[in-house]
Specification:
- With about 300 residues, the chain is mainly beta.
- It has one domain.
- The protein has three helices and 18 strands.
- Strands 1, 2, 4, 5, 6, 8, 9, 13 and 16 form a nine-stranded antiparallel sheet that branches. Strands 3, 7, 10, 11, 12, 14, 15, 17 and 18 form a nine-stranded antiparallel sheet that branches.
- A hairpin with a 5-residue loop joins strand 5 and strand 6.
- The protein is globular, with a radius of gyration of 18 Å.
- It starts with 8 loop residues before the first strand and ends in a 16-residue tail after the last strand.
């Protein structure tokens, strides 16, 4: 994979990110099923459906993951999540005014689907802690989708440009795990830039910290017009770091899934001629021509 060497990360996008997250608020009542909840038909008109690649791994043995995301069709209010797992996510975004970012977030303990969660209500000792951040990274607490720590920077990625991200983990004392996000700026091991390290409390009942490994494509603007826009990206060279031998291994199987938005203009599949590359698409003129929902991608 050839990595662009003239891209750069910059400060000063955190306020724009807050604006972007606020744009999600019309969907919260629908998600909660309140008295003012939208009908399924209204939800489908307002937003493109979120789609996921759920990677098939042995989660108890996974201590790291790496994915290359290549955006093909982009619209304002798009999140291409390269690596999502039980405790967090990282990827690239286009915000509402076209600004482009790289983002890495880790949750506090609790329900990540709690749309009323307020970060100030979490006891200090239970919070996700930012242990390190690159000087160009903005750091903030977040709420409204569970709570946690968010790190973000402006990053001038381009359409059709491969962006490779990696997340590794290590114990932080007896009851915490520290996750580190890396961005590959140059080929080879020496080309990884450390963006941030965030520590969070271990999951209860022995639930694997790196379980539920996935990628996704999300429309977070959700303003009716955004549902008419196509979003498409490729996710390739998927690898996991295993505790059993300390080595990176390719992930070759994935399941196609989506959120509850009742839209059928979604699709996913393998990229022709590339055995460890998938695509996902949603919204606009997308048709479900390749893989049926909840099927393993062949």
């Amino acid at each position: 994979m050839k990595v662009r060497t003239n891209t750069r990360i910059t400060r000063g996008v955190i306020c724009l990110a807050i604006v972007a997250l606020a744009a999600m608020s019309p969907s919260k009542s629908a998600a909660k099923g309140g008295a003012d909840a939208d009908t399924p038909e209204e939800t489908a008109k307002r937003q493109a459906r979120s789609v996921h690649l759920r990677y098939i791994t042995s989660p108890a043995d996974v201590t790291g993951a790496a994915v290359t995301v290549t955006p093909r069709e982009v619209a304002p209010g798009t999140y291409f999540c390269a690596i999502g797992w039980n405790c967090g996510y990282c990827g690239i975004q286009e915000l509402l005014r076209g600004e482009r970012t790289v983002i890495f977030s880790v949750w506090d303990p609790g329900d990540p689907h709690d749309y009323e969660a307020k970060p100030e209500n979490v006891r200090e000792e239970h919070r996700a802690r930012v242990m390190y951040s690159d000087p160009l990274i903005d750091v903030a607490r977040f709420g409204g989708e569970g709570t946690g720590a968010r790190t973000m920077a402006g990053y001038d990625w381009m359409n059709d440009m491969p962006v490779r991200l990696r997340v590794t983990s290590e114990p932080d004392g007896t009851n915490r795990t520290a996750f580190t996000c890396w961005l590959q700026e140059e080929p080879g091991e020496a080309g990884w830039r450390k963006l941030a390290t965030i520590s969070t409390m271990n999951l209860e009942n022995g639930v694997p910290m790196f379980g539920n490994l996935h990628s996704f494509v999300e429309d977070f603007w959700r303003n009716y017009d955004s549902a008419k826009k196509s979003r498409r990206a490729e996710f390739s060279d998927v690898e996991v770091l295993l505790s059993t031998d300390g080595k990176w291994h390719p992930v070759t199987r994935a399941l196609f899934s989506a959120d509850g938005t009742p839209s059928n203009n979604i699709d996913a599949g393998r990229v022709a001629g590339r055995p460890n590359a998938y695509f996902m698409a949603t919204g606009g003129s997308t048709t479900n021509a390749t893989t049926q929902l909840w099927s393993e991608i062949k």
